[in-house]
């Protein structure tokens, strides 16, 4: 390297100052991308040639060595004068393949376009390069167009020029907005982490568990509430025959929000050798409803199918009500099976003097721990000798922890990949009653407070004041204005996205909110950040999306530790609108080949169903070959009104479509647009009751829903707000599809307006929200932080599979 350093290092000092932090937050405007259409990374082995990108970029050590070799091959063609004049230019141009913005410099952000052979240059730099080193061009590029332009400085630099001056080389080096905090998780102005998703599976009926067998095959198994479990291969193809089918035994219904059904699935830690798995589901025995934990064995003849005759009922517990059924099964690091039960249902845990959760002689409202090893003969399970209440009179020996209301989704922390810090911790989301949702870390013998407490707050004041309560507080609790049904998640410990290491990611079933917690190692406190889907170019990578169905049912890890979640558009056990999403950090990935694994072969006896993604990126206009332009003769009066949003209120406004035999109003006829000397506002039709508009966003396809009723504009509350409701609004606005039913005032609060509609329930065929069921105009029990919104679209994407 020393023989070329004189001219090469003119600007290395700038990049060498970009010290990379494991986790930092960067502005949302960035879109770093490599030539393989993936995010940049931090090289495992320090670069020796393109050292300005040694902290963060698109080259690993192997690629760096290739570029160094190419550099010397080119430079060997020149004499000393050529060497001293052009070494720096050749170095600069070659090393831009390592730039975090390589895809943009080489015009490779769209995989369908040809990649440049020379990076996009700023015009002044290009003129200097041409004046000193135009003779080097044939050694850098075989592009015939460049060869034709080589003798003409203006034509060549025009061809090499990049339109976006902020991204051209070398201006981007001095653009602080592009270079500061490169590689950190991107955040918006509200501190919301910007992540992306990858669709993994779809068409599922309330998918509420996704687990792996830890057998080296890297298959994943997705359970549906109706009692079906499906096998997916590493290439995401689905086996046509289910892995498990106990639909005849499972108690559930098609009612939206029914909490009964197939609720949990766990593979034995030694499944690879003993073939045992455990399921948690609702059953009806006579007139009684129960939860049942059963053991199954995989078939001896097919590794992708359970032997349905092998079921052995390990435990059954009577359920006094149809809700609060719990449902989590997991094996912790100690090898024991943990069972998470609900408190029995109804409201306020009304069973007995103190409720089920505080009663250690009841199995409801508990975390149970049992030993299911070596149970071929003798008892179906044994009590671990260190269970905390094994010697307490009247207490059930299975109880490991108590005082829980309805823990929905728990997970075991794999621990930091290098230090193993946090390994073995059990995180749970416990669904609240009226005010708070909470996240707990489960510890042996601890009381988690319910029904005395809900979150950090007292619920039963008499119990709460009891000095013997000795309860452990949650690590985090949030109020119902943020969400009303927590879905516990996972601490990310995967390999592919290093920035996420140590972040606990969870969600809320009702609000659709994705959230995160990160522990401060010095104080032990947990810092909260909401997770938002990356907008603009943040998720503009092949195969990534930035939207999901609103009802977040469950989270999952695959065998390699990558993170997923499942959600649905309609919370019914029979609605095939469930989707599995993989969580993606678009700001930084692991170095190439670091996360490689070789799945063990899977012998398949069933037909395979190839995975076909259904969802698309929103917020970016992508090419659509089937797009048909609208007739220019059509009078787009609502667009004209949006141009005057400052005069009549921001947003897109549309009239209620005519239904039945009603006639269009006079002002809505097309002939009105030909009248001269009339302003656009004078030509706009009279606003009818039931008209809607979208406000709170500069884009016309999304915003807070406001409705015009009896001469005033007002907002709509998000209680019962679904994609079906959103579809009515979007169709009214002239869009083909509803992409998202937004909640929790995602597009701001309409504080200056009254809330006009609440508890809106549409079937999808209505002409306006007024035609849907609702609590009555002006009748509501909500606040503006629950203002509803929508994202609409005209792409071929359909929200429900």
From TrEMBL:
User: SMART domains this protein is in?
Assistant: SR
Q: Which GO terms describe its cellular component?
A: extracellular region; membrane
- What Gene3D superfamilies does this protein's entry cite? SRCR-like domain (3.10.250.10), TolB, C-terminal domain (2.120.10.30)
**Annotated keywords:** Disulfide bond, Glycoprotein, Membrane, Secreted, Signal, Transmembrane, Transmembrane helix
Name the cystine pairs. Answer: 762-772
Residue ranges spanning the membrane: these are 12-30
- Biased composition regions of type Basic residues, renumbered to the chain: 666-678
Q: Which domain of life is it from?
A: Eukaryota
Return the Pfam families for the record.
Answer: Folate_rec, GSDH, SRCR
Q: Where in the cell is it found?
A: Secreted
Region annotation (Disordered) maps to 651-690
SRCR domain location is: 692-793
- Keyword Transport set for record: no
Give the residues annotated as coiled coil. Answer: none
Member of which family?
Belongs to the HHIP family.
PANTHER family given in the database record:
HEDGEHOG-INTERACTING PROTEIN, HHIP-LIKE PROTEIN 1
Protein name (record): HHIP-like protein 1
Q: What is the species listed in this Swiss-Prot or TrEMBL entry?
A: Pundamilia nyererei
Q: What is the lineage of its organism?
A: Eukaryota, Metazoa, Chordata, Craniata, Vertebrata
